[in-house]
Every structure is written in C-alpha cells, then in structure tokens.
Amino acid sequence: MGQAVLESITYSAVCQDCGARLECCGVQALVDGSLRWDVEVTCSVCGFAMAVCDDVLPSDLRDQLLSEHGAAWLRVTSPWGKSIAIIRVLRAELGLDLTEAMTALDRVLAEEFSGTLPEMEFLARKLRSVGVSAVAARP
User: Fold this and answer.
1) Vertex 134, ends 26 and 55: CA angle to 5°?
2) Domain count of the chain?
3) 4 φ, ψ to 5°?
4) CA 91 – CA 98 distance, rounded (Å)
5) Which domain holds residue 41?
6) How do residues 19-72 score in pLDDT, each as one tens digit?
C-alpha cells in the first residue's frame, strides 16, 4: 500500500456550544490507499470536543493546505503508449468525463497537473498500479 503521506493545517473556528474561539487541527492523509480528511477540536472554555473524519476535504481548507505547503505535481515518466491507462485512472479517480480527462492528460504530460501532496501521491500510486511510472513531487 505504501507509506502514509500527510499534510496538516491549523485554523480557527467558533465553538458550537459556547461560542468561544477554537483552534482546530486538520490533516489530509493518504492511508492504506485512501484519501481522508480528519479534524480534531477541543474547546478550552467549555470542554466541547469533536473529531470528524471524511474523505472530502473542504475547498477553503484545501486552499489553505496549498497556500501553507505549496502544490505538488504529478509527474509521469516514459508516458509513451500509456495515455489510455492514464485517462482511465483520471476518469475513475477524479470522476471526469472523457473530454475533461483528455484535458487533464495534457496537463499531466506537460507537468502542469497539481494539487496537495496526498492527492498527487494518491494518483501516482493508482497510475503505478496500472504500469505507468509516476511520482508526486514538489519543485
């Protein structure tokens, strides 16, 4: 399955019980072949505690992850003859239609397809599982 890949952020929120300001810690992780988003919160004023796990990373927090950690790029080496396999993975994992997948393929081949490190490593592992040499990397 590969080693876990994760990135974390802290952000503020309002306690749903007492209205105090909370410091939240969120982690996007690639664990056992799945992307997940985990948040843990404890209010120091009233003791309210919450842990949330999901596979969907909220877009504003994704933007914060990218801002704090920088984007990672999906890099494919020796892609010749592998376009159909790449398109299949992009369609299956990202829910793209054929036109969107072809556009994404062009971006992958031009080394312009980016996201969070866990997202790009997830796609790289899926590509490697179908015989495409791929890595997630930062510049």
Assistant:
1) 25
2) 2
3) -65, 140
4) 7
5) 5-69
6) 999 989 999 999 999 999 999 999 999 999 999 999 889 999 999 999 999 999
